[in-house]
Amino acid sequence: MSIAWHYMKNGAQTGPATTDEIKSQIASGAIKADTLVWREGLASWVAASTQPDFTGVVPPPPPPAGTAGGPGAITTDAADVEQNKIFGILSYLPPLLFLVGLIAARQSKFAMYHCNQGLVLTLAAIAVSIANMIVGMILVHIPILGWFLMTVLNLGIFVGIIVLVVMGVINAANGVCKPLPLIGSRFTLIK
Predict the structure, then answer these.
(1) CA distances from 37 to 11, 16, 67, 68, 112 (A)
(2) CATH classification of the domain holding 21
């Protein structure tokens, strides 16, 4: 007869499960080796790693830095994410709301990541706007075609910035530290 184990997962008691099922979950990373387990005959809940049935089970290695969430993304502590998610979201909203997180959550890696992304996005938007004004001063002298090109250019820049803002807000709201396309992985101004 196989042993019926119970274990804690996401704060809830789960089970019964066989020894092989628990081993498989540890090996796949679904639960950790220090997950609390219990079976009939044990006086209390104990870490799975303390039980002879689970010795030798090797959990998967942590992902290399920059792989969680896609290329260039970083991993952060779940408690940090939950505590500072609002600062991550605010970092992308104008005008200069990344300063709120920079001041209020300086100790948070999650908030600082998104503050950096917000600052880089703000600086990129300013630089593109200045370049657009210069190009616009040239295009305005070309009748009809110049005005049309200037309108298309202005609309493209506006839509591009809005798309990057929305992507940043979605990443922060989902608790992900993923760089924005084109600009996000190029500069680290806030650490």
Answers:
(1) 12, 10, 31, 28, 37
(2) 3.30.1490
Computed on alpha carbons and rounded to an integer, the radius of gyration of the chain in Å comes to 25
Residues 27 and 87 in one domain: no
pTM confidence score: 0.57
Q: What whole-number distance in Å separates Cα of residue 15 and Cα of residue 21?
A: 10
Query: Residue 170: its pLDDT value, please?
Result: 92
Residue 167: the pLDDT is 92
The predicted-structure confidence for 149-177, as pLDDT tens digits, reads as follows: 888 988 999 999 899 999 999 998 888 88
- Select from 172, 190, 178 the least CA-distant residue to 115: 190
d(CA 187, CA 176): 18
Q: Is residue 186 part of a domain?
A: no
**Same domain (yes/no): 110, 29:** no
Domain that holds residue 148: 78-173
Tokens of 179: 């760089």
> Is the peptide bond prior to 63 cis by the omega test (within 30 degrees of 0)?
no
Which runs of consecutive H residues, i.e. helices, occur in 29-144? Answer: 78-90, 98-104, 109-139
Q: What is the DSSP string of 122-175?
A: HHHHHHHHHHHHHHHHHHTTSTTHHHHHHHHHHHHHHHHHHHHHHHHHHHHHTT
